[in-house]
Amino acid sequence: MALRGIKVLELAGLAPSPFCGMILSDFGASVTRVDRIQDHSMDTMARGKRSISVNLKAPAGIDVLRRLCKSADVLIEPFRPGVMEKMGIGPDCMLQENPRLIYARLTGFGQKGAFAQMAGHDINYIAVSGVLSMLGRHNEKPY
Q1: 47 — pLDDT class (breaks 50, 70, 90)
Q2: Which of 86, 80, 40 has its CA nearest to residue 62?
Q3: 73-119: per-residue pLDDT in tens?
Q4: 3-class secondary structure for the chain?
Q5: Can you give the pLDDT at residue 40?
Q6: What is the overall mean pLDDT for the chain?
Q7: How many other C-beta atoms lie within 10 A of the C-beta of residue 130?
Q8: Mean pLDDT value of segment 5-20
Q9: In the structure, what pLDDT confidence band is assigned to residue 136 with cuts at 50, 70 and 90?
Q10: Which positions ≥6 away from 116 have C-beta within 8 Å?
């Protein structure tokens, strides 16, 4: 497997994060999903992953993530800009502790710019691009 020996931490989030982790796992990476405490959702993209529940709103949970990142190769982070920095675990801090860590940020519209704080889902993309206005029947309002 191409990614055998690569350790990935995937912070629980919406589709892009678990999908990325699933593909990396399919290629042989060891993926550990960091779930929220009491998150009992059925993740259909959990194939081949281990998981751990961590409370990232508590200092002890932040410490757990820091320790995990010290031996990880990749961190997949799905939050909006500034969330990780507020917790003290943004890329500047984490790369000081593990300079070889690949800190992958999966935000819809990037870290900076007019749409950076906007949710990034397929409906948002097709609306912003103008494609949404072309869907539906001619001369009728959308259902």
Answers
A1: confident
A2: 86
A3: 999 999 988 999 999 999 999 999 999 999 999 888 878 888 878 87
A4: CCCCCCEEEEECCCCHHHHHHHHHHHCCCEEEEEECCCCCCCCCCCCCEEEEECCCCCHHHHHHHHHHHHCCCEEEECCCCCHHHHCCCCHHHHHHHCCCCEEEECCCCCCCCCCCCCCCCHHHHHHHHCHHHHCCCCCCCCC
A5: 62
A6: 89
A7: 8
A8: 91
A9: confident
A10: 80, 81, 107, 109, 110
| Phi and psi angles of residue 129, each rounded to the nearest 5 degrees, phi first | -75, -15
Q: How far is it, in rounded angstroms, from Cα 76 to Cα 17?
A: 6
The answer to whether 77 and 84 are in contact (CB under 8 A) is yes
Residues 6 or more apart whose CB falls under 8 angstroms from that of 100 comprise 73
Give the pairing of strands 74-77 and 102-105.
parallel
Q: Give yes or no for a contact between 3 and 28, defined as CB atoms under 8 angstroms apart.
A: yes
Q: Which of 117, 114, 135 is nearest to 126 (CA)?
A: 135
